[in-house]
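If your schedule permits, I should be very grateful for your opinion on a structural question. Please examine both parts with care and let me know of anything in them that strikes you as inconsistent. The record follows directly beneath this note:
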Amino acid sequence: MRAPAVLFNVVIVGCLGGWAGYSVANRASHNVIVQVQQERDLALVREHELRGQLQETLTARAALEAESQRLQTNLTERLHRLEELARELSRQTGQEVVPPPASVAEPVPATEEGPIE
């Protein structure tokens, strides 16, 4: 009679141990899941912020490209006007104007002045 009672106690203790182990593992698993979800949420927020920054950067880049094109056009117009003035001056003075070779054109420093009139 003692053997069935011992066996019963071993089974009960085993069940209690299994339940306690399962509870601890379940709690730990839940904590890990919560931590991973928080990390995912933070990553999503960061991704959203980075996408916003990327959009701002692309918008700024487009604006800079447009401004660069405007400045290039402005400088080209100024160059043409200067060439016309040089030709006119050469006709008035009777001197020949020799344009610089196209491959050796010196860069013109950018200024914030309006067009030459």
Notes: Confidence is low (pLDDT under 50) at residues 113-117. The chain is about 80% helix and 0% strand.
